[in-house]
Design a protein that fits this description.
single chain; about 170 residues; mainly alpha; 7 helices
């Protein structure tokens, strides 16, 4: 499986020092896979992901020294397709996060039972780059839900303390 992540470093244990290509049919096969990617990479959708994944995996499987033998225009198309696909996958993650945040109850209706959901949403949000976070249009709703959750947890602790020591300060004092 190919991961779309610009931080991934691809390693190739099959790299050779020379540029002798023992099996030129492998180059041709990779070029044929890349050629299946639409020329207008800006028209790509997530439906094209399998085609891009397959071509990228085949290209990455080539020994590093062989990659220069792949048609330069096709290599450029593959690189551009990967960039577009990275953006599409990121947007899909952002859209799903926005939808999941929107499904949270109103701030006044947050309960301790939503802690797992809110924490999971915060984890997903915090995993985004600062630039991507700006695209989460309802991030304030998530922040408010997290703050409400923190308030409820503090109130629960005060309630436990008051149960143990009735002389302890009440929740308004905390």
């Amino acid at each position: 499986q190919v991961l779309y992540d610009n931080d991934v470093t691809w390693y190739d244990d099959n790299a050779t020092d020379g540029v002798t290509i023992d099996d030129p049919q492998k180059i041709t096969a990779v070029e044929e896979l890349i050629a299946r990617i639409p020329q207008d990479v800006n028209s790509l959708t997530l439906e094209n992901r399998a085609v891009v994944d397959e071509a990228l995996a085949a290209y990455q499987a080539l020994p590093t020294s062989w990659r220069t033998a792949v048609n330069a225009e096709l290599t450029d198309r593959l690189n551009a397709a990967r960039t577009v696909m990275d953006a599409l996958v990121l947007q899909e993650k952002i859209d799903a996060l926005i939808s999941d945040i929107a499904a949270l109850p109103a701030e006044a209706d947050i309960t301790l039972e939503q802690e797992g959901t809110i924490q999971a949403l915060l984890t997903r949000y915090n995993a985004l780059s600062d630039e991507a976070k700006q695209s989460v249009t309802n991030a304030a709703r998530l922040t408010a839900a997290a703050a409400k959750l923190d308030e409820l947890k503090a109130q629960a602790v005060v309630g436990q303390i008051n149960t143990i020591d009735p002389a302890a300060p009440d929740k308004e004092a905390v």
